[in-house]
Amino acid sequence: MAISLKTHPVAIVFLMQIALTAGSSTIAYTVLGPVHAFSVVVGGSVAIMPQSLFGFWVFRQRGARNARAIARNLFVGEGLKLSITATLFAIVWLNAESLKAVAVFAGFVITVLAGQLSLPLILKGK
After folding, report:
1. Which residues, 6+ apart, have CB-to-CB distance to 70 below 8 Å?
2. Cβ contacts of residue 85 below 8 Å, gap of 6+?
């Protein structure tokens, strides 16, 4: 069964996180400059990539008959998400001396919160 972005529950979260990261980066660029804006994008990307993978991993199967598989996917997906997030932060801090740490974390936190707060949008679409 092919995954369609139009019907997949993760699509709303993904698009909302992309839009919020872009908006936050634009505000950071206007107020603080290009280094802060890039830092916000990096932080947002560190949140978006693992969260999207998690969402697609967990929601690969649907329906009450697949409850055990979905629960298993939830635990495996959460482990993958945390591992990938830690790895991405390690890569960021080892390779980017010019980033602003506060802006990286701000981009990360804003993006994660957007994902958490988008649940009502997902449920509204059902």
Report:
1. 58, 59, 61, 62
2. 46, 47, 50
- List, for residues 86-95, the tens digit of each pLDDT value: 999 999 999 8
pTM above 0.70, yes or no: yes
Residue position matching structure tokens 């740490």: 101
Q: For the segment 46-93, what is each residue's pLDDT rounded down to a tens digit? A: 999 998 888 887 777 666 677 787 788 888 888 999 999 999 999 999
Distance of CA 70 to the CA centre of its chain: 20
The 3-class secondary structure across 32-68, one letter per residue, is CCHHHHHHHHHHHHHHHHHHHHHHHHHCCCCCHHHHH
